[in-house]
Amino acid sequence: MASQPSLRLPIINFSKEELKPGTLKWNSVRVEVRKALEEYGAFEAVYDRMSPELCNQVFGELKDLFNLPVEIKSRNLSEKFSLGYIGPSAMMPIFESIGIQDATELENIESFANLMWPKGNTSFCNTVHSLVKQQSELDQMVRRMVLESLGVEMYYKDHIESTDYDLRVNKYEGTQTDKAELGVISHIDKNVVTILNQNGVDGLEIQTKDGEWIRVKFSPNSFVVIIGYSLTAWTNGRLHPAHHRVIMTGKESRYSAGLFSIPKAGYMINAPEELVDEDHPLLFKPFDFFGLLMFARTEEGQRAKFLLETYCGVRDQKMKG
Ligand SMILES: O=C(O)CCC(=O)C(=O)O
Ligand SMILES: [Fe+2]
């Protein structure tokens, strides 16, 4: 189904200098965040700490990275699902993706750069590290606002400590014909929060609860915030996890960078008792993120309409393993 040009994702301004917890501005942004995540599971965050210079640097570095030969990019191996190098495939022929695990640590970006370039690449490392710093700060602000607005801010520290940050950078080749081409198939992220930015070439689409598609137009100094199954489960279904996809329509290539907050191995995702009551019965049994990932790869997982419910929904009692 084509996107509806009249639909827009909520735009929330995070640029105000004094956006500090406890201030009036913080509280009003918090209301907008909660509303957007309940309704759309996503919003655009205007974020002026991403300076135009940093944006140019980020996408310059990503271009250089994807211009490396496939043999070099393929050196980026990872045991973690979808974090190595993903080259064009029959299903997604215009899509390439490269992951860096625990990307808030400069040394992990450096180890990656040492694999790609014989002498490493200081400017790549510093630029990507600055990007990840902005993305992870935004991730934490959003999660703090969510927890505060649900009255469970006492879990904030644990919540942040329960996750790592993986970065995935993507290239979508521009189309050579007038036809729209699929970049990434429709999916719901499985992690907690995803913070995305792009080089000014649009392509990301987010589905509303009514099944309409919103084509998201956003500039390099904005981020799109999308929530995944892990946050929906932890909030006992209060927040809507957004289906999204990428459709390319123009000749120009699109580059994007997504920071994913990912529950640590062994951490059980379990809604706090304050979010479970008569009006809000427990929706999902406690689960481990990697269990959900493994289930997603099974035949039953691939057939599931709403993976989280099939995997650990309380009502249909289909908890696996
Ligand atoms: O490139 C994008 O904008 C979206 C990528 C995406 O959905 C993902 O990596 O999960
Ligand atoms: Fe995604």
From TrEMBL:
InterPro entries named among the record's database cross-references: DIOX_N, IPNS-like_FE2OG_OXY, IPNS-like_sf, Iron_ascorbate_oxido_reductase, Oxoglu/Fe-dep_dioxygenase_dom
Domain of life: Eukaryota
Record has Metal-binding as a keyword: yes
Keywords of this entry: Iron, Metal-binding, Oxidoreductase
GO MF assignments: metal ion binding; oxidoreductase activity
Domain Fe2OG dioxygenase span(s) in chain numbering: 163-263
PROSITE patterns, per database record: FE2OG_OXY (PS51471)
Family designation: Belongs to the iron/ascorbate-dependent oxidoreductase family.
Physiological role: Probable 2-oxoglutarate-dependent dioxygenase that may be involved in glucosinolates biosynthesis. May play a role in the production of aliphatic glucosinolates.
Protein name, per record: Fe2OG dioxygenase domain-containing protein
Organism: Kingdonia uniflora
